[in-house]
Design a protein that fits this description.
2 domains, Tumour Suppressor Smad4, alpha/beta, Rossmann fold, globular
Length: 264
């Protein structure tokens, strides 16, 4: 069957479109038949993926585009697991690419698409008051949403990593830790005051923060990272540890390979 390529031309300030145009040229030279859809608005990628049937669906863009495509694939009824791939060369954060590798050069893409060497990729299901969503990288509760919003408003010339770092620093100065009830697997309900909880399938988030050093996308487990009642000063001082995956040395940080249920 002909692969469906879903391209977000706006990802990374247009870098995704430029990268895909070079990939498409390589596919034409190789005689590989493909169908290409470009998104115009939020939701287009999910709708296209949901209507793709049993074809291989390839997301071209950043982490957000891949997230949309995965949610479209997993909302459709299917007798067999969907086939998904991602060319993650044009987004802002670039975190999923560190856990789910893909070709870095356009001339590699035709063989990558044509070769049957796919492996299983775990997905998580997130249930909230607004419905259910799926994720293949990291779902977090706490300060993360503030960081993402600030990073998205940052100037393009700074780059994804710089904008996420700046967003993290400002958010650490303004964010208030919250009290939650948390249950891991079938264990007891734990009360924690937290800065963030990350349920990690992939290892990275926030423009290169190595939040879950032991996370693997195909081992059937999530690494649950709880960053507890960390103050503003320690939060900023320990940011370099987070990028190096050494934050587990802090007494306020707990890492556990479990399923997590945030109950309040």
């Amino acid at each position: 069957m002909v692969p469906l390529i879903i391209v977000n031309p706006a990802a990374g300030g247009g870098r995704a479109r430029g990268f895909w145009e070079r990939c498409a040229a390589s596919c034409t030279i190789a005689g590989l038949e493909i169908e290409v859809i470009e998104t115009r608005r939020r939701g287009d990628a999910a709708d296209a993926a949901a209507a793709a049937g049993d074809r291989l669906v390839v997301s071209v863009g950043g982490d957000g585009t891949a997230h949309e495509v995965v949610n479209g694939l997993l909302r459709r009824p299917a007798a067999t697991p969907p086939r998904f791939a991602a060319l993650l060369r044009g987004g802002t954060a670039g975190d999923l690419a560190k856990s789910v590798p893909s070709p870095s050069r356009p001339e590699q893409v035709p063989a990558w698409l044509a070769t049957d060497r796919w492996r299983r990729l775990d997905a998580g299901r997130l249930a909230t008051s607004t419905g259910r969503r799926y994720f293949i990288n990291v779902a977090d509760a706490g300060i993360g949403a503030e960081v993402v919003r600030r990073a998205a408003r940052g100037p393009a010339w700074v780059g994804g990593r710089g904008n996420f770092f700046g967003g993290a620093v400002v958010s650490l100065l303004t964010h208030r830790n919250v009290s939650v009830r948390l249950r891991l697997d079938d264990g007891p309900v734990l009360r924690r005051r937290i800065r963030t909880i990350a349920v990690a399938n992939g290892a990275f988030l926030g423009g290169g923060m190595w939040i879950a050093p032991k996370a693997r996308t195909d081992d059937g487990l999530f690494e649950v990272v709880t960053i507890g009642d960390v103050g503003r000063v320690l939060g900023i001082r320990s940011l370099p540890m987070l990028y190096r995956g050494r934050h587990g040395r802090l007494k306020q940080v707990e890492l556990s390979p479990d399923r997590a249920q945030l109950t309040d």
